[in-house]
Amino acid sequence: GVQATLLSSPWGDPQSPPPSASKPLYVLELTTDEPLLGLAIACEDVLADARTLVRELLIGEDPRAVTELWHKMTYASVSRPVHSAAALLDVAMWDLKSKANLEPLWRTLGGSRPRANVHASACAVFDSDESLRSYYAGLVRDYGFRAAKLHVGVDLDADLRRLGLLQQILRVADHEPALIIDAEERWSAKDAIRSTR
Does the first or last residue of the chain, that is N or C, have fewer Cβ atoms within 10 Å of its Cβ? Predict the structure, then answer.
């Protein structure tokens, strides 16, 4: 079965004005006849399709057969666009499978070491370079981040200036920090290639 619980915090595109971009998030619980459940985070508009996929395709199946069930859901998506719901349930089934295996998810997914590279990110809109500096410098100081993501895509000159600032901040922790950009789907492939260069 499937249950969903509303989270209190909305998320949104940090470069779009609220409230149009804000969407409530839900914790989806994929339940089984065992005392195990798989978790995933969902937007409300995907929940109905997720419930339908569970009812029509997953009831009675072994949720540990994640790859097979993903193919089954994807094939069903050909006639009706439910790709987001299939992806959501795929995440929940991997979580469930790791719990059934009594191991962390990274190991179920084939990982061989218990550490992973992470990056700092922010959903906030920075009204100044100083606020960006303060936020990321605090993360580097307090947590040792060596990589960070910056939302870009509106003003290329400002993006380049802020990426330089971010690189400078991260060099405190690593002489070759990783810089990640997220254009929030604002760029075509051609724009992405040109802007990245």
Answer: C
